[in-house]
Amino acid sequence: MSEKERINDNLRGAIRRLMAEDDSVIVLGEDVHEPYGGAFKITKGLSAEYPERVLATPISEEGFVNMAAGMALMGLKPVVDMMFSDFTALAFDPLLNFASKSVTMYGSRLELPMIVRCANGGYRGYGATHSQSMQKYFMGIPNLSVYELSPFHDNYAVLRRMLEEKQPCMLFEEKMIYSHYMFRGGTVNELFSFTLTGEEDNWAVASIEETGAADVLILCPGGLAAMCVAAAEQLILEDEIEVKIAVPSKLYPCRIEDILGEAVQAGRILIVEEGTGGGSWGEVVAVQLYPHLMSRPGSQIRLLHSADSIIPAAVHHEQRVLVSGQDIMESVRQLMKPQPVR
Amino acid sequence: MFEIVVPQLNANDEECTVQAWHTTEEAAVQAGELLATLETSKAVIDVEAESDGYFYPLAKAQSEVKTGETLALIFATVEELRAYQEAAAAQAAVPASFEQYTLSNQARAFAELHQFTAEELSSLNKKVIKLSDLEGLLAGRETAEPEHMPLSKNQKQVARTVTASYQSIPRAFLLMKVYCDGALAAMRELGARLDEFVGFGEVLPGMLSELRDEFPLLYGSLRDEETFLPAAEVNVGVTLDAGTGLYIPVIRQADLSSIERVTEVMAEYKYKALRGSFEGSDLTGGCITVSLNTNPDVISVLPIILPGQTGMISVGGVTKELALQDGEIVERSCVHLGLAYDHRVINGFYAVGFLTRLKERLERFTTASPVPGIA
Fold it and tell me: What is the nearest CA distance from B164 to chain A, expressed in angstroms?
């Protein structure tokens, strides 16, 4: 466990282990075969080991997601590689109207275990249609769970959890962090450590001192977790502001009860998301948190999203649109400013 | 010297692993020779020498290196390489301070200003040290240094008393010589007879009680700026310090009428002073005090006046001097008798009168005067 492992290797290893343990687990999607092994190399090597169970599909998102849902109804456990999450738009109908509905549309609950893996987010200069954060379009759909790749959460446990839900699950995977290392053994870096907490260890809470009181609690999905940690590190050194960071594996449905203690203690909460505002995960979480913070004077929640803009391909323009470490630090500093008494 | 830099391998990777070195330190390499393989998240790439020379790696095999970092050096000559190795070894010899803590920027500046040591900083037992932590550390440092010695309970009481005296009593002082050969002889004789020490501390209390009627303002206290309250009875305090702390036990009026009784009480008080076993009543109720400082060569002391009293007598050590007596040079003993008095109550004329009478009594003191005072 102590050896360093990249997130992409951890994810690939998780899929391989699931395939080894369970013959019904199959992989399908575009370019998943050898030698390419998927656009982000997550399926690399799998088709050589399991040629019958790794299915390369044509460019036909609606078709192969429909197919995967059918396979799941028939007892298989498909893991779909969506390549870019932007392409989920093409598979929205099968996910919304077929896969998720089929679970409870036919009188008795049907088992429909499937995972749709989506390389998500920007910071790579891939342009407006290959850099989006698509999570919010899948929030609030009955029988559809939304997860996000995180450096804190071991992917074997995450994938197992998804299959055990026996309903369609989306896994959004921030492209930027594929080559990062997993945080292991409760250690993030020299300053920060973390613990997993809550139901199914859904939340990772990173802090300087676990028992210490934080000035600000940041909530963010896994994609920007490392960015938030780096900002928190700079904030303690430059501003002496103590920040804790809570990162969920599963975004929807999301139990905030598991981190309520931390939230009420800090009082000042920053929710960071890479996607644009407007019907987002962070807004839902903020609405759930507010009633619990009412009794604590000075409590405040800020939301930080990327700009209301398409994402430019030119990296220097993209930087101006997407959430940055500087934005996170600035938002925390704003939270620390004295609030007018209401 | 030529630097080999970790190349930008692809858009997604800012670091990679040195999978293996293909040559060794100090080896001669040629341009185009394979030096290392680097592994990124996506690919393995080869790094080749760009010039001939002698090879020096800056990273270990299996370690992480960042894009743009210097991976290795190639020196034109072996001498150049050796010089570099020596410099690197010298640098490595400087022990790196092992820090288990991190300082915030404000704390770092404060720590430099106040020169906190690594021990002090690690004693905080904190992962991140903030400015407020160091302020606490500084406060602790100020109270901890220098080494401190707490005052004894008795000395703290002395401190309160002398402070109150200095703050409230405007004091004047008068010093007179007393020729005391006769008195000293009489004291020795009396002491031998009583088998006790008899000195000024034993003799003066009785004499002081006799002067009460003539000089009432030295026996009592100032109630306020306008009123003097005479003491109900003449009780005389005597300073005693047996090395265990300063005490001022009080000889009661009833005991003052006989030198034998005073000697007895004083002997008891000296015993108590040695053991610090005075009772509260031994130490209260005095209306005038004798300060004994009779060690050799002490000329005099300038005593305080105890709050609630108006004067204190001081007795110095016995000194010898030459004098003319009937045209002859003779040796004589003298002692300096001082009087510190509350100038709000007593003036110099009164004080001189008082000390003169005391001096006369001391100079006349003989064993022949059976009981001083009653005469």
Answer: 49
Residue A8 forms contact with B (CB below 8 Å): yes
Q: Is the separation of the CB atoms in B186 and B197 below 8 Å?
A: no
Q: CA A63 → CA A60, A91, A202, B197, B367, distances in Å?
A: 5, 8, 32, 123, 136
Does B366 contact chain A (CB < 8 Å)? no
Using CA atoms, how far residue A269 sits from A181, A330, A339, B254, in Å, is: 27, 13, 14, 84
Burial, B225: exposed, middle or buried (Cβ in 10 Å; 0-12, 13-18, 19+)? exposed
What does the block give as tokens for A6? 């990249």
Complex ipTM, two decimals?
A: 0.74
Of B12, B40, B128, the CB nearest to A236: B128
Which among B372, B364, B360, B375 is positioned nearest to B258, based on CA atoms? B372
Closest approach of A41 to chain B, Cα-based (Å)? 8
Residue in chain B closest to A40 (alpha carbons) equals: B42
- The tens digit of pLDDT for each residue in A161-172 reads 999 999 999 999
Best residue of A240, A243, A318 to probe chain B, by most B CBs closer than 10 Å: A240
Share of chain B above pLDDT 90, in %: 48
Residue A133: partners with Cβ closer than 8 Å, 6 or more residues away: A85, A120, A121, A122, A172, A223, A273, A274, A275, A276, A306
Three-state SS at A215: coil
User: With an 8 Å Cβ cutoff, are A179 and B40 in contact?
Assistant: yes
Looking at the DSSP bridge assignments, the partners of residue A172 are A118, A148
